[in-house]
């Protein structure tokens, strides 16, 4: 009986060993898949980092453009005010010319 149980134990051990090897083989294949996913994931992180960096740069440029547009709007208002003052001065000069002409008669 002892030999039957030892051969049975040995057979069970060999069977367990084969199953373990098969599982390790499957896990090694999965490990390659996991490694590829990690590489893809790291590339994804790099792409996301670069995208975020580009977005931040665009956001900063957009802010500067908005500030410049506001400055140009203010400059345009001031030029309009100066034009109105110059137009009033030209109208005033016409009035003065008429007065000088009237005084010369």
UniProtKB/TrEMBL annotation:
Note the coiled coil stretches, chain numbering: none
Q: Does the keyword Membrane apply?
A: yes
Q: Where in the cell is it found?
A: Lysosome membrane
Q: Which UniProt keywords apply?
A: Lysosome, Membrane
Q: What is its main location?
A: membrane
Q: Which InterPro entries match?
A: BORCS7
One Gene Ontology cellular component term attached to this UniProt record is: BORC complex
Q: Does the keyword rRNA processing apply?
A: no
Q: Which family does it belong to?
A: Belongs to the BORCS7 family.
The name on file for this protein is BLOC-1-related complex subunit 7
